[in-house]
Specification:
Elements: H1 3-6, E1 10-12, H2 13-27, E2 32-37, H3 38-43, H4 45-51, E3 58-63, H5 72-84, E4 92-97, H6 99-111, E5 117-122, H7 125-131, E6 139-141, E7 144-148, E8 157-159, H8 169-186, H9 188-195, H10 202-222, H11 237-248, H12 258-277, H13 281-294, H14 302-311, E9 324-330, E10 333-339, H15 342-354
Parallel strand pairs: 1-8, 2-3, 2-4, 4-5
Antiparallel strand pairs: 6-7, 9-10
Helix pairs in contact: 6-7, 7-8, 7-10, 8-9, 8-10, 8-12, 11-12, 11-14, 12-13, 12-15
């Protein structure tokens, strides 16, 4: 059994809450801290606490919701609170929230006193299928996403789709983008399944989440440090992250959710795949129209595109000054470390605007 599979196992629903209860009994943390944001404090924490049977006093730590607060300043606030509340090496942090809470909470735990244990309880679709699997923790540096962080696995991840009942529609769509990405890098069958959304029920969603988590876990297990295969999980993210960062820091622009930016990034990456890897044109058209059925088109002007291209050089996947793209030869057949000339990126934006 690989280290990854042994570390950070994923459990579902009731089974997961039982596992947390067992963990609390057996490992007897000195103190238990629950990290939430103002939304999950209100919407998710009460349901979570009902499932946890222990006589311990939990300390609830709350941060402000939103990507804009995913920074070192917020971490410092949490570290100070932990210190004041006498957290020690044997304390445990349980992160109950979306990707910002699980990324930041995992990072806070990994660094505090050189590392304390943490558990993730993702409450958004995005965090369930992406942020809480694979041990990536971190925060943003100014407008540059996830520049500060470490890979350090949670003791466990507990996924309960019941939390999704509290999620706004836009946040559900944002999470769906990562599921679409998992589909594009894994198989046509899974792509067809997840794009026939009109027929999806919550039960289907349970299965789709499990399948999506499995796709990601399998990749991460084979390549925990992102030397090769794990890079395929960045499909659509090289441009997508730059778009997200750009819109985040230009107050005159509407802020995009992560998945909304990644949706654009996937269309651009698929266009680049057609140009550079002979990805089939009819599949490019199909993918474009399916994504645009779900996500509203984003407007870009020339200056936006230039600045987005400039932002890409900060992407963590780059090395030696080269911007590295993941492209597809076909659905489920990816190529990593592709160099893409800037003029093709401009063409990709033209294609996005015109379709």
């Amino acid at each position: 059994m690989s280290n990854m599979a042994a570390k950070g196992p994923v459990y579902y629903q009731e089974d997961g809450f039982l596992k947390i209860n067992t963990y609390l009994k057996e490992s007897k943390p000195s103190k238990v801290f629950i990290l939430v944001d103002n939304n999950t404090h209100r919407e998710c924490l009460p349901a979570f606490l009902q499932k946890i049977d222990t006589s311990e006093n939990f300390e609830i730590l709350e941060i402000e919701a939103g990507e804009i607060n995913k920074n070192l300043e917020t971490c410092t606030g949490v570290w100070n609170a932990l210190s004041e509340l006498d957290a020690d090496r044997k304390s445990l942090i349980i992160n109950v929230g979306g990707g910002v809470v699980t990324d930041l909470g995992g990072f806070v735990a990994s660094i505090f006193k050189r590392g304390i244990s943490y558990i993730n309880v993702p409450t958004s679709l995005l965090a369930m299928v992406d942020a809480s699997v694979g041990g990536k923790t971190g925060v943003d540096l100014g407008n540059l996403k996830n520049q500060i962080g470490v890979i350090n696995h949670a003791e466990m991840v507990v996924i309960d789709p019941a939390f999704l009942a509290t999620l706004p529609q836009a946040e559900m769509r944002s999470g769906l983008a990562e599921i679409l990405k998992h589909a594009l890098i894994s198989s046509e069958a899974y792509w067809n399944k997840v794009t026939n959304l009109s027929e999806l029920t919550l039960d289907d969603l349970d299965d789709i989440i499990k399948e999506s988590v499995e796709i990601k876990s399998k990749v991460v297990t084979e390549d925990p440090q992102e030397n090769g295969l794990r890079k395929t999980l960045n499909y659509g993210h090289t441009l997508g992250h730059a778009i997200e960062s750009y819109f985040l820091t230009h107050p005159e622009k509407t802020t995009l959710l992560h998945g909304e930016a990644i949706a654009v990034g996937m269309i651009l990456a698929t266009y680049l795949s057609k140009e550079l890897q002979e990805f089939p044109e009819e599949k490019l058209k199909e993918i474009t129209s399916k994504i645009l059925d779900i996500y509203e088109r984003v407007e870009f002007i020339k200056e936006d595109i230039q600045q987005i291209i400039d932002l890409m050089k900060y992407d963590k996947k780059n090395s030696h000054g080269n911007i590295n793209f993941v492209l597809l030869k076909d659905i489920g057949d990816s190529v990593i470390d592709c160099k893409v000339p800037n003029e093709l990126i401009w063409n990709a934006f033209e294609y996005y605007k015109k379709t």
